[in-house]
Automatic annotation (TrEMBL):
<comment type="pathway">
    <text>Glycan biosynthesis.</text>
</comment>
<dbReference type="GO" id="GO:0046872">
    <property type="term" value="F:metal ion binding"/>
</dbReference>
<dbReference type="InterPro" id="IPR011127">
    <property type="entry name" value="Dala_Dala_lig_N"/>
</dbReference>
<keyword id="KW-0464">Manganese</keyword>
<dbReference type="GO" id="GO:0071555">
    <property type="term" value="P:cell wall organization"/>
</dbReference>
<keyword id="KW-0436">Ligase</keyword>
<dbReference type="InterPro" id="IPR011095">
    <property type="entry name" value="Dala_Dala_lig_C"/>
</dbReference>
<feature type="binding site">
    <location>
        <position position="329"/>
    </location>
    <ligand>
        <name>Mg(2+) 2</name>
    </ligand>
</feature>
<keyword id="KW-0963">Cytoplasm</keyword>
<feature type="binding site">
    <location>
        <begin position="229"/>
        <end position="237"/>
    </location>
    <ligand>
        <name>ATP</name>
    </ligand>
</feature>
<dbReference type="InterPro" id="IPR005905">
    <property type="entry name" value="D_ala_D_ala"/>
</dbReference>
<dbReference type="Pfam" id="PF01820">
    <property type="entry name" value="Dala_Dala_lig_N"/>
</dbReference>
<dbReference type="InterPro" id="IPR011761">
    <property type="entry name" value="ATP-grasp"/>
</dbReference>
<feature type="active site">
    <location>
        <position position="340"/>
    </location>
</feature>
<feature type="binding site">
    <location>
        <begin position="328"/>
        <end position="329"/>
    </location>
    <ligand>
        <name>ATP</name>
    </ligand>
</feature>
<keyword id="KW-0547">Nucleotide-binding</keyword>
<dbReference type="InterPro" id="IPR016185">
    <property type="entry name" value="PreATP-grasp_dom_sf"/>
</dbReference>
Amino acid sequence: MTSQSRKPRVAVVFGGVSSEHSISCISAGSVLNAIDREKYDVVPIGISTTGSWVLEDPTTNPLELGEGGRLPSVVGDREVSISPGETSALMVSDSGAVPEMLGVVDVVFPVMHGPFGQDGTLQGLLEMAGVRYVGAGVLSSAVGTDKVFMKRLFEAAGLPVLPYVVVTPREWAREEKALREQIVELGLPLFVKPARAGSSFGISRVTSLDELDAAIEEARRFDPKVIVEAAAMGAREIECGVLQGEGSEDHLASELAEIRVDPLHQFYDFEAKYLPEENTGLDVPADLDPELAGRVKALAVQAFDALDVEGLARVDFFVFPDGRIVINEVETMPGFTSLSMFPRMWAASGVDYPDLVERLIRIALARDVGLR
């Protein structure tokens, strides 16, 4: 519990060693700007691309897109560590200096995307340190980052997914011919993706089997495990935000959003997602029949429960002209940039950005540490 004599301390952790380092920084910049400083003591902690934890200063290092699309990164040099225990504290030190106590941490807001941050690794460290944190726990964070295990859990729960084939280095070496035959059965076009990367890094759209090997190699630049999926031809891309219910409250589903990708892009790639000059259409709320929209929202909550997610998630769907709905994936820490769909969907649902951040912190502070 936090002391009555001080404000709860929120450590916003961002950056990391994954390919999504810069996107994490941009998201964190928005979160840091939204937290109520009258209510919370806020500490920005960046994880560098080499894995060092440092005290970051957003006033000297703006965590936002720069001129010409320049991507930000963590640059702080005062190293930070968490001292685990009944009252976990932050320690900060300069090179050659005696470590200085920075204070007790009441909750961590891990604005982390991708492996070694969003995938349960950071969550496991925080569980061991006894620190509360925003968002999904260890297992659901790991499964939510791994598209293969995510789909297998959805299938086990009876939720609809697109046909797919998993390509690991070991199986490719042992059963390449059989895997190629399975991939051919998916039909064309195909999407080849790293199994554990986000922000559309490493994804290729394959329209000829002659392109398959190059697409697999591109995906392997980000992850040795690759997933090959059938394309959702003719489907609309629909997203829904889910928030954990407080107390006995049911989980909440947001207004839906639709992504209309500019014809210049073959799919919703990195530039379409994050660069403001790109002409991607984003409709919030999406123009869907109310009955169909209700089914999408219900499936979003079911997917949230199937992965046992806490806090928040963005659930992405393909909706076909005949009304068929397929779950694409769940993001357990969706983007929080100014262009990100999760905050925009909740704004359309009556929850503005500062209220959204406040709710997530409140949920995290109220939950137990350890097994729950």
